[in-house]
Design a protein that fits this description.
heterotrimer; A mainly alpha; B mainly alpha; C mainly alpha; B: mainly alpha; 2 helices; C: mainly alpha
């Protein structure tokens, strides 16, 4: 079963990180990054299929594809920023983590602006 | 799954061996060589992890169609 | 399967290399001690035996530790061959030949070389003084060599195997 594999990889990686952390903290950090990346890569295929289904449903519901694309990109930015920020926090660099999250918020705003503008225009059309 | 766990074990193995070699060399008075070995181990693991990250970002780009 | 064999070979090769270096460190004190006792025998021969240098060297070669007997044997052989070389030159050739196969260091070789330059030239008391000086210096070196050996033997054996393992993990 997939979840068992992933939990096993996670546990093994955690134990090894703790072992290495007492001797060489920098290598422990790299090890935890590697473990996170590997687990994510294992699930990425399934995420892709889910997104294809959502796109299919959206197309059939008649939603403009542009909006759906923006939403997916926003989800992607949020995930990757969280991944990076958590790794920084694990290494004790809270400041760097906060900066990464701040930057991701800005980027999400940039992507969201067209949607917000479209919503406002629709609202203005409603109000005479 | 088999060869993903491989990378984790390789990194952990390099980490432990580098720590042991560092301690042995420091104990024998050859501290500079110890630091050199530690740096070399760090560089090798770094290269592996960067390759993994590049792989990840490529796949994320294609799935989320970010760029 | 082949990968496993290859890794085993890399670890074995590197480990044996480390053990070889460690062996060099552990052999040096023993060789220095053998040389010192052989020089002691030579001094005894010269001061009590009143023999010629060549005979003294052969007698010492028969009785001393077989590893260092080469030096005395070859010097005696060169002298008896009457090739016209002085005792110093014969001694020089013998210690150079011995040095190549031994675990001795450059400073040990220079002690022996200084001894050689006084062989067969001066009278008996002078020879004995030079021999005693050489024995004293070799004694000091062997003391230092023992300390070095205590530190380095284990170090190099471990280093060999661990670096082998490291290479295997990086390249696996």
């Amino acid at each position: 079963m997939d979840v068992l594999q992933i939990v096993a990889i996670g546990l093994i990686a955690t134990v090894l990180v703790v072992v290495v952390k007492s001797q060489k903290p920098e290598l422990a950090l790299l090890l935890s990054v590697a473990a996170g990346v590997i687990i994510f890569l294992l699930v990425l295929g399934k995420i892709g299929s889910i997104m294809d289904i959502i796109k299919d449903l959206a197309a059939r519901a008649g939603i403009n594809m542009v909006y759906l694309g923006s939403i997916l990109k926003i989800i992607g930015i949020a995930y990757i920023a969280e991944f990076g920020a958590q790794i920084c926090r694990d290494a004790g660099e809270g400041a760097v983590a906060t900066k990464i999250e701040f930057a991701s918020k800005i980027l999400i705003m940039v992507l969201a602006v067209p949607i917000v503008v479209a919503v406002l225009q629709a609202l203005l059309k409603l109000v005479p | 799954m088999g060869n993903s766990v491989d990378i984790i074990f390789k990194i952990a193995g390099v980490g432990i061996l580098v720590a042991v070699l560092n301690t042995i060399l420091k104990h024998a008075g050859k501290e500079e060589q110890g630091q050199l070995v530690a740096l070399a181990g760090l560089a090798i693991v770094f290269i592996w992890v960067i390759q993994l990250l590049a792989d990840l970002f490529d796949q994320v780009k294609s799935v989320f169609k970010l760029f | 399967m082949i990968k496993l064999l290859g890794s085993a070979m890399v670890v074995a090769a590197s480990g044996l290399g480390g053990i070889a270096v460690a062996g060099g460190y552990s052999r040096r004190p023993k060789e220095l001690r053998s040389i010192r006792s052989a020089l002691q025998m030579l001094e005894t021969e010269i001061s009590y035996g009143a023999t010629h240098l060549q005979e003294a060297l052969s007698l010492v070669a028969e009785r001393c530790d077989k590893n260092v007997a080469y030096i005395f044997n070859r010097t005696a052989a060169e002298l008896s061959a009457r090739t016209g070389s002085t005792a110093a030159q014969a001694w020089e050739k013998s210690i150079n030949g011995y040095y190549r196969e031994s675990a001795l260091k450059a400073q040990d070789l220079s002690i022996l070389r200084n001894l050689g330059s006084s062989l067969g030239i001066s009278d008996r008391e002078d020879q004995i003084k030079h021999l005693r000086l050489a024995m004293e210096q070799i004694g000091n070196e062997s003391f230092r060599a023992e300390e070095e050996a205590a530190r380095n033997v284990k170090l190099w054996s471990y280093l060999g195997f661990l670096s082998g393992f490291l290479v295997v993990i990086v390249l696996y």
